[in-house]
Amino acid sequence: NELPERLRAIAEESCYEWTEVSWDDYLIIAGDRESTGLPGVRPCFTTALFRQSLMKLDMVPLGKDHGRCNSVPFKAATLFAAFQRFKTAEYINTTLRKTGEDDCQPDLSIYVGDGLPTPGNEVIDLDEFDPPNLVIEVAATSEGEDLGYKRMFYENLGIQEYWVIITRMRKLAAFAIADGRSGEIKESVVLPRVDLAIVDEALRRTDGNDDAATTRWLIEKFSG
């Protein structure tokens, strides 16, 4: 079954800009992306922008910079947590959903400590579980969006810490979030004592080292 013409028009517009939509219509579009002719998209919905219910269909990134830099923050966070014996649960491109308010698929979501979501659901239901402690986006072609609008709706979701990997600069922009506001940080809040300059250096090392060498360097940094 194809999307009705009205919803198809909303879906097409939302490929280019945030578009007003009801929650119910959003769920239909998000659940039926194949019929839009644009299966390679990630749907986002938020009420955090301009006091409106808005959606956007983000094109799924396919570039090598996105794919290569995506692994660096994942390795840094999980290796540090492993050496510190923290409990973690990591989710790649998994939907975070708060009914009627927010729906998004971060590149990487990490829970740290207790209260990890139980398996079995297609989405992480934020009506049932707390939001992830750390959310990471890799900005290869979406730097302004990730630092701007997405930062606002992660504030609205109550994420504790938000990282944006700016691939063109091989650099991390990191923010702590509290009381619906965020501020830039140089040391992680949810991974205590992690100097985020280490992540910057690991990103720079992707240009001159193989990934195994970068992983060994991170292990040396975190195992001492």
Report on the structure:
By secondary structure, this protein is an alpha+beta fold. Helices cover 33% and strands 25% of the residues. The chain has 8 helices and 12 strands. The strands form 2 sheets. Strands 1-3-2-6-5-8 form a 6-stranded mixed beta sheet, with helices on both faces. A 6-stranded mixed beta sheet has the order 4-7-9-10-11-12. α4 (71-84) runs parallel beside α8 (211-223). The N and C termini lie far apart (58 Å). The model is unreliable at 33-39 (pLDDT under 50).
Key features of this structure:
25% strand; 6-stranded mixed beta sheet; 224 residues; 8 helices
Radius of gyration from CA coordinates: 18 Å
Main beta sheet, described? 6 strands, mixed
Secondary-structure element string: HEHEEHHEEEEEEHHEEEHH
Biggest sheet: strands side by side, in what order? 1-3-2-6-5-8
Helix content: 25-40%
Distance between the termini: 58 Å
* Overall pLDDT level: 87
Strand portion: 25-35%
Structural class: alpha+beta
Count of β-strands: 12
Could you name the ranges where pLDDT drops below 50 across 5 or more consecutive residues?
33-39
What is the 3D shape?
A: globular
Write a brief caption for the model:
The protein is an alpha+beta fold. The chain has eight helices and twelve strands.
